[in-house]
Design a protein that fits this description.
- β7 and β8 form a beta hairpin.
- The protein folds into 3 domains: 50 residues; 78 residues; 166 residues, Intergrase catalytic core (hpI Integrase, Chain A), CATH 1.10.443.
- By secondary structure, it is α+β, with helices and mostly antiparallel strands.
- α3 packs across α5 and α7 crosses α11.
């Protein structure tokens, strides 16, 4: 039956399905439209009870469950960023209404904002992951639509030479200079350097560690500290009771100088230093690439580099292998042309103008 609730302009429907009373707003003040909605709703409940049809679920329901189940992911904040962009396009849609054409339209809309194909692909990957989980794990839909990801150009590994690194460090303020030195010595990611605490450092044993919840692969990492890293850490002892890397700031209220934790390394001061050093197309994360490149060029085996860098699989470090082809030299030599004695005949003339041959 249809009825109106007090202080509501919409019609509500009430009926029994499968022994359960259903009360739901029709979302309309038009009685004819409300009757059509009620008939459709009754049909859906009947098909679920008698024919085993799945209840229809909305995109919003899927997003809420996805967020709850994936909050442990290292990329959780990135996922939320992409979901905020997707929301206006899929809001109000049921999962079975999200088709390939709607995914293509979503990709086209994102492309119109002049972002890279990589950014669009990361967004599509989040949407695909939610739809696949709705199909395979939650059994909310029978089929999860997908579209091919956009082509991404293969980028070269960006790394610095020793001279370039020295030039850049000379242009950085004290705290960023030592953070860069520490990054080049350990290969740690920006967030692990900015968030490093003294409780994670043992200078006597020359080790540091990254807890599992701080690591991208969600696996604890032990960091051996070489002499360069140890010297950096010793310079920062006693400046802050908890955090390792801090910067000096004058409190505007009382003029007192305080040591403040560093929130981000690759900001404005970093970009200005890059310009002064004449270094282009270089991010803070590329310090990690530089560290890995120096290791490979120095002869560190890839499986050792994988453990040092906390990568989850060897494939992640294969991109550095081309920087040290020396270990292949003996195999390249297997097809060398054998060295043979070669006689050279020299023709010259004697004093009388007659040609002579000499070997």
């Amino acid at each position: 039956m249809l009825y109106r609730r007090k202080n509501s302009r919409y019609w509500w429907c009430r009926f029994t399905a499968g022994g359960k009373e259903i009360r739901q707003s029709t979302g309309t003040a038009d009685k004819k439209a409300a009757e059509e909605y009620e008939a459709k709703l009754k049909g859906e409940h009947w098909r679920r009870a008698r024919m085993g049809e799945k209840p229809r679920r909305s995109w919003e329901e899927a997003v809420v469950r996805w967020i709850e189940e994936t909050s442990h992911k290292a990329s959780h904040e990135d996922d939320l960023y992409h979901l905020r962009w997707i929301d206006p396009h899929f809001a109000g849609l049921m999962l079975d209404e999200i088709t390939r054409s709607k995914l293509r339209a979503l990709a086209a809309a994102r492309s119109a904002t002049n972002v890279s194909n990589a950014t669009i692909n990361r967004m599509l990957s989040v949407a695909h992951a939610i739809l696949r989980r709705a199909e395979r794990n939650w059994e909310w839909i029978d089929h999860a639509p997908t579209i091919p990801l956009l082509p991404e150009p293969q980028k070269r590994i960006r790394w610095l030479t020793r001279d370039e690194a020295d030039r850049l460090i000379a242009e950085l303020p004290e705290h960023l200079a030592d953070m860069a030195r520490f990054s080049l010595s350990t290969g740690l990611r920006e967030s692990n350097v900015t968030g490093l605490e003294w409780s994670q450092v043992d200078l006597a044993r020359r080790v540091a560690w990254i807890h599992a919840d701080q690591a991208k692969a969600r696996r604890a990492i032990g960091i051996p500290l070489n002499t360069d890293a140890v010297l950096v850490l010793r310079r920062w002892q006693g400046r802050h009771p908890r955090r390792v890397f801090v910067f000096r700031r004058t409190d505007p209220a009382d003029g007192e100088i305080k040591w403040m934790p560093v929130a981000k390394a690759g900001g404005g001061a970093w970009r200005k230093a890059l310009r002064r050093a004449g270094i282009e197309n270089f991010r803070w994360h590329d310090l990690r690439h530089t560290w890995a490149s120096w290791h490979v060029q120095g002869g560190t085996p890839l499986h050792v580099l994988q453990e040092l860098g906390g990568w989850s699989d060897l494939g992640m470090v294969q991109k550095y292998a081309h920087l040290a082809p020396e270990h292949l030299a003996e195999y390249a030599a297997k097809i060398e042309t054998p060295v043979r004695a070669v006689s050279h005949t020299i023709r010259h003339t004697d004093g009388a103008g007659k040609k002579k041959a000499a070997t």
